[in-house]
User: Fold this.
Amino acid sequence: MRTDPVLVAGATGFVGARLVRALSDDGHDLRAMTRNPGRYDGPGRPVHGDVHDPGTLPAALAGCSTAYYLVHSLDSPDFVERDAAAARAFGMAAADAGVTQIVYLGGLGRDDDSLSAHLRSRREVEGLLAAGGVPVTTLRAGIIIGGGGISWEITRQLVQHLPAMVTPRWVRTRTQPIAVADVVHYLVGVLGLTDALGGTFEVGGPEVLEYAEMLQRVAAIEHRRLPIFPVPLLTPGLSSRWLALVTDVDVQSGRALIDSMANEVVVHDPSILTLLPIPLTSYDDAVRLALGEDRAEGDR
Assistant:
């Protein structure tokens, strides 16, 4: 049994809920930070904390050796400002509490590219978390495949709700989707790892795919046909409203993600494979697992 407390901020989220289970299974003394600890029913000890209320952070972080930061405000129009303020406060509170490692899940994309506001915000958060002096281990990922993830839900619902798609040019952008289980494996693996302290690592699945190919392969697994007709003049604003009509993703989150789809998000530095050589899940297998999770959730 490992005794150093580990805090997960964002413990009830898409990745966080899976991470706390993995950390608990690994024997860690786990604290799950949430705004509503009385409603928390996952593993570990729930503690009250809100990254947008800095006064709640010292007690949540007290005595912790590592803190995972898995929160964002993508559904807010002012997400850039909110995420910056939250990261700054969390980094300073972690330093004051004597935390020795922050682990952050950011986004892929080349720094020399014209990144979307969403991806630029992820980069800014990396720096602000580190500003307090605690070494930050950053894992940068693109689309994460798993039940409940926003990008996956967009993909699944588009395939399941539409007989055909009229899409903008971003369907030809390359990405490197990764199974959520593999992301969690990496997140657990870097915990307390000396060679990971202060490092930035790019994580992706074994295949580089265009968005169009991702959609069509989901359709094939679902035994559906999905003709795709690109329309160059379909703007991001129109695309996000179109998404809101055919999926249950809100317009604000959809717009932020669609803006990012103009950026190629693939791994250029595979050094994580040397540090943590895990077997990666194929895209099709990740899709099958995600569909199984969605069916299980629907049966509850």
